[in-house]
Amino acid sequence: MAKTREGTDEVEKCPECGSRHLVRDYERGELLCEDCGLVLDDQFIDQGPEWRAFDVEQGEKRARTGAPMTYTIHDKGLSTEISWKNKDSYGKSIPTRNRAQLYRLRKWQRRIRVSNATERNLAFALSELDRMASAMGLPRNVRETAAMVYRKAVNKNLIRGRSIEGVVAASLYAACRQCGVPRTLDEVAGSSRVGRKEIGRTYRFMTRELKLKLMPTKPQDYVQRFCSELKLSGEVQSKAAEILKDASEKELTSGRGPTGVAAAAIYISSILCNERRTQREVADVAGVTEVTIRNRYKELTEKLGIEIQL
Q1: CA geometry: angle 28, 32, 33, nearest 5 deg
Q2: Is the full-model pTM beyond 0.70?
Q3: Average pLDDT for the chain
Q4: Which domains does the chain have, with CATH numbers?
Q5: Beta pairing, strands 22-25 & 30-33
Q6: pLDDT beyond 60 at 48
Q7: How far, in Å, CA of 234 to CA of 144, rounded?
Q8: Pairwise CA distance, residues 295 & 260, whole Å
Q9: Which residues are within 8 A (CB) of 132 and not within 5 positions of it... i.e. 6 or more apart?
Q10: According to the model, what pLDDT value does residue 99 have?
Q11: How many angstroms separate the CA atoms of 214 and 162, rounded?
């Protein structure tokens, strides 16, 4: 039994015998007198020191107040759940005669978690969102933002007449833009069950109706990810960033697809740093054609005066 004496004994005393030898038993949640055994409080809260945490995320993980609220679950993670372990709160097995009753309770608990059409829609859509985000390897903040965008669309009744998968994919694409983790429409379409054209159409409709303020993506946003997938060094990455900086100063990036410009800059820097990759390899990673890379490559080398020996 875990028992500890507290430093507040001088201000507390036993009403039965007047003893100040009080003990806090945190396993049972009791405050009791060590001399006569009287229980002064049977619902004692452990106010011990918090665990050390070095950032917000670590603090949330080590908190003793349950899971944090999340928008990626239809009920925000606030509902209860009856476990399938068939054990009570003390860890004892539930008798066989009561298991049928527990099964019925568990079944109705699962049903009442989703009480109306809106919640049914959210439950399906948010599970689909989680599946797509996992397939694309997106971080937690993007998932939360996408869930918020989808909830706003549901509240404004923008779902009517459109597929749930299309709206989810558009929400995820918008969240990627908002959080600075850009993904192309082709990548989003590859993880969803709807086509690129429908996602783009739904995305434009949602940005107009929800008044989402999204800045256009820049070629620099794609450099790190493309270099990582091509297994290129940091030197190639920094060289590509320099090329794109010079290109943007001379307005060579305006009016051109950011992925194509980023792919061309990476192709040039890989040659300059002797870590050559073929146009086909770069094109496959960037999701553009070899012709696009050749056109942007010629523009950048001519306008920036870069000499390359092929």
Answers
A1: 155
A2: no
A3: 84
A4: 3-41 (2.20.25.10), 117-210 (1.10.472.10), 220-304 (1.10.472.10)
A5: antiparallel
A6: no
A7: 31
A8: 9
A9: 168, 169, 172, 188, 191, 192
A10: 85
A11: 22
Neighbour count for residue 97 (Cβ, 10 Å): 7
- For the chain, first and last CA: distance in Å? 77
Q: Are 185 and 196 spatial neighbours (Cβ–Cβ below 8 Å)?
A: yes
pLDDT digits (tens, 9 = 90+) for 284-298: 998 889 999 999 988
- As to burial, measured by CB atoms within 10 angstroms (0-12 exposed, 13-18 middle, 19+ buried), residue 188 is buried
Interatomic CA distance for residues 256 and 29, integer angstroms: 67
Give the CA count within 13 Å in the CB-facing half-sphere of 74.
Answer: 18
- Sheet containing strand 30-33, strands side by side: 3-4, 22-25, 30-33, 39-41
Phi/psi class of residue 66: alpha, beta or left (left: φ > 0; alpha: ψ in -120 to 50)? left
Lowest mean pLDDT across 29-38, 55-64, 243-252: 55-64
The two tokens of residue 232 are 């290129």
Q: Is 246 left (phi over 0), alpha (psi -120 to 50) or beta?
A: alpha
What's at 151, amino acid-wise? R
Which of 255, 194, 259 is CA-nearest to residue 171? 194
Cβ neighbours for 187, distance < 8 A, ≥ 6 positions apart: 136, 287
